[in-house]
Specification:
Helices cover about 45% and strands about 40% of the residues. The radius of gyration is 17 Å and the shape is globular. The protein has a single domain, classed as Ribosomal protein S6/Translation elongation factor EF1B (Alpha-Beta Plaits), CATH 3.30.70.60. It is an alpha+beta fold. The chain has a four-stranded antiparallel beta sheet with strand order 2-3-1-4, covered by helices on one side. It is built from four helices and four strands; from the N terminus they run βαββαβαα. The longest helix is centred in the N-terminal third of the chain and has 17 residues.
Length: about 120
C-alpha cells in the first residue's frame, strides 16, 4: 500500500462540531476502504492566501494514511460532492517524505533546536 497525505479546506461557515463530523465522514470512507490512518493534524481556522468562493478563511485538516490506489479516486469524488469542502489536495508520499513526516511527528526537529539553545546558554 502506498502512503498518502490529504489536506482539505472546509468552509468557515461551519460550526466546529459540523467540521468534526465532516472530517469523521471522510475518515470513515478511508477506513471502510481498507486504509490505515497514520496521522491526523487539525490546523483549525486559518486565513487563506486568496479568497475562495468569496471567503477569506477556512478550516484546514491534514490526514496521512496508507491506502490502495483505487481508494484515492473514491475519496476525491466524495470531496467534490461535499459542498462543505472548498479545496482539497491528495499527494502520494515518496520514501523521503515518509521519513520526514515520521521525524516531524517524533519531535526530532525540536530536539535539535533545544540542544542548540543549550549550547548557546553554556
Amino acid at each position: 500500500m502506498q502512503q498518502y497525505e490529504s489536506v482539505i479546506i472546509l468552509t468557515p461557515l461551519l460550526s466546529e462540531e459540523v467540521a468534526k463530523e465532516t472530517i469523521a465522514k471522510f475518515k470513515n470512507i478511508l477506513t471502510e476502504g481498507g486504509a490505515e490512518i497514520v496521522a491526523e493534524d487539525n490546523w483549525g481556522l486559518k486565513k487563506l492566501a486568496y479568497p475562495i468562493q468569496k471567503k477569506t478563511t477556512g478550516f484546514y485538516h491534514l490526514t496521512e494514511f496508507k491506502a490502495p490506489g483505487e481508494l484515492i479516486q473514491k475519496l476525491e469524488l466524495e470531496y467534490k460532492r461535499d459542498e462543505r469542502v472548498m479545496r482539497f489536495l491528495t499527494i502520494a508520499l515518496d520514501k523521503h517524505a515518509v521519513a520526514y513526516n515520521e521525524k516531524k511527528r517524533s519531535g526530532a526537529f525540536n530536539k535539535k533546536a533545544e540542544t542548540k539553545t543549550e549550547e548557546v546558554a553554556n
